[in-house]
Amino acid sequence: MLDDMDFIKSCEVPGPTKEAIRAIILYKSNVTSNDYVVDIGCGTGGLTCEFAQRAKQVTSIDTNPEAITITKKNLDKFNLSDNVELINDSGSNALTNINNIDIAMIGGSGRELEEILDIVDSKLNHKGRIIISAILVDTKIEAINKLKELNYNPKIIEVNIAKGRVLDRGVMMMSENPIAIISASKR
Ligand code: SAH
Question: pTM higher than 0.70, yes or no?
Answer without folding.
Answer: yes
